């Protein structure tokens, strides 16, 4: 449990106190809570299990070869595609990124990978976005952000021309 | 242990509100069969079954490619992860539900609504950057913003900022796993991108329907 989580707990308690003070009707709150929990929790359970298996099945070392400096501009679409394929939370995604970095992936490729994962992570779209916001919102968002990982990678390439600042130091 | 404490706090807080307000004020929906049915379908309908099938398929693949030992280890890891996530989801959804009921929605519409212009995108980006917690809290807030009439550019900017610039993720994950220099570089190249995404979203020609507004409109 990290600090961020405990801050959320404190926020919840404060909000609860405000609601108490305002004599807010608890009915709609509980209704909304139950509706959203029904949409999320059962799917979350399945998606977590599936994601764990997919992360095991991904051939990480083989993939890292596509992300090296010699792959040039091709590394960006490759990294974006892999980011899309990692259906797991930050624990697994960043562990994979560290494996890539250690295997010689270039900094722009890593930036593209992390960015693509953070905005496309398949499990997150399936667990949260689809049930809470619906398919048409998801389509609209995907169309809007599809360019973002590439822009991030290209900017990293431009910065790389000027300075070597930003090279990843993987923890493993 | 921590998990149990959180559950207790969440249930206690909710109960406190419930009992204080005098019991059954707005709980008629619990006896409404249409509501129960809809909620059940939301929970265990086709979407859920699809997920279940996919999880089973991946499990079978892992079993044959990596062996039973890996399947076992993965499942144990999943259970631990689920135990960590459930209290987060409970807290995040409770916050979102409370905010949903208490927040003056017209004020949000003014801040990040259709007429909020470039300023709305900047506000949404800042909000996404400082939103604490994982996807459970960010998406719960996003759904609330969507139902409150935030414009889609602001919605896209918000969730993109949370994903790419989220300070919590950078501090907790980028820095320890890939080093502070990389974290700074990634943050720097991403600063303008949520606004770009928001501008693109505003240019797209079709209008998305959001689950929540539809349903609430029908009620």
Keywords:
heterodimer; A: 172 residues; mainly alpha; B: 219 residues; 2 domains; 12 helices; globular; disordered C terminus
Short description:
The complex is a heterodimer of chains A (172) and B (219). Chain A contains nine helices and no strands.
Description:
The complex is a heterodimer of chains A (172) and B (219). Chain A is 77% helix and 0% strand. Chain A is elongated, with a radius of gyration of 20 Å. The mean pLDDT of chain A is 84. Chain B folds into two domains: 101 residues, no CATH class; 114 residues, no CATH class. Chains A and B meet through helix 1, helix 2, helix 5, helix 6 and helix 7 of A and helix 1, helix 2, helix 3, helix 4 and helix 7 of B.
The counted number of beta strands of chain A is: 0
Task: Figure out the total of helices of chain A.
Answer: 9
List low-pLDDT spans of chain A: none
The overall pLDDT average of chain A reads 84
Q: What is the percentage of strand-forming residues of chain A?
A: under 5%
């Amino acid at each position: 449990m990290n600090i961020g989580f405990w801050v959320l707990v404190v926020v919840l308690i404060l909000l609860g106190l405000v609601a108490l003070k305002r004599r807010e009707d608890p009915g709609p709150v509980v209704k909304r809570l139950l509706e959203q929990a029904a949409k999320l929790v059962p799917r979350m359970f399945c998606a977590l299990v599936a994601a764990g298996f997919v992360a095991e099945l991904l051939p990480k070392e083989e993939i890292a070869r596509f992300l090296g400096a010699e792959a040039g501009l091709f590394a960006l679409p490759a990294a974006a595609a892999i980011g899309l394929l990692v259906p797991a939370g930050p624990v697994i995604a960043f562990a994979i990124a560290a494996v890539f970095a250690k295997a010689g992936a270039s900094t722009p490729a890593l930036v593209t990978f992390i960015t693509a994962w953070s905005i496309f992570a398949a499990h997150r779209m399936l667990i949260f976005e689809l049930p809470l916001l619906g398919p048409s919102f998801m389509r609209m968002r995907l169309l809007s952000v599809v360019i973002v990982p590439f822009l991030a990678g290209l900017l990293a390439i431009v910065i790389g021309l000027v300075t070597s600042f930003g090279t990843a130091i993987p923890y493993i | 242990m921590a998990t149990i404490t959180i559950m207790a706090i969440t249930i206690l807080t909710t109960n406190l509100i419930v009992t204080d307000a005098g019991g059954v004020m707005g709980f008629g929906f619990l006896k409404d069969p249409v509501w129960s049915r809809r909620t059940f379908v939301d929970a265990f309908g086709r979407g859920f079954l699809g997920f279940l099938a996919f999880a089973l398929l991946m499990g079978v693949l892992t079993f044959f490619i990596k062996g039973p030992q890996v399947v076992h280890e993965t499942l144990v890891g999943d259970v631990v992860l689920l135990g960590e996530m459930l209290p987060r989801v409970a807290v995040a959804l409770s916050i979102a539900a409370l905010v949903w009921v208490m927040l003056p929605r017209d004020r949000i519409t003014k801040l990040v609504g259709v007429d909020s212009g470039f300023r709305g995108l900047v506000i949404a980006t800042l909000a996404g950057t400082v939103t604490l917690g994982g996807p459970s809290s960010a998406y719960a807030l996003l759904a609330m913003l969507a139902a409150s009439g935030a414009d889609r550019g602001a919605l896209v900017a918000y969730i993109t900022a949370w994903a790419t610039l989220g300070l919590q993720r950078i501090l907790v994950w980028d820095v320890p796993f890939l080093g502070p220099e990389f974290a700074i570089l990634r943050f720097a190249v991403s600063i303008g991108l949520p606004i770009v995404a928001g501008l693109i979203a505003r240019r797209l020609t079709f209008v998305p329907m959001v689950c929540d507004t539809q349903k609430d409109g029908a009620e």
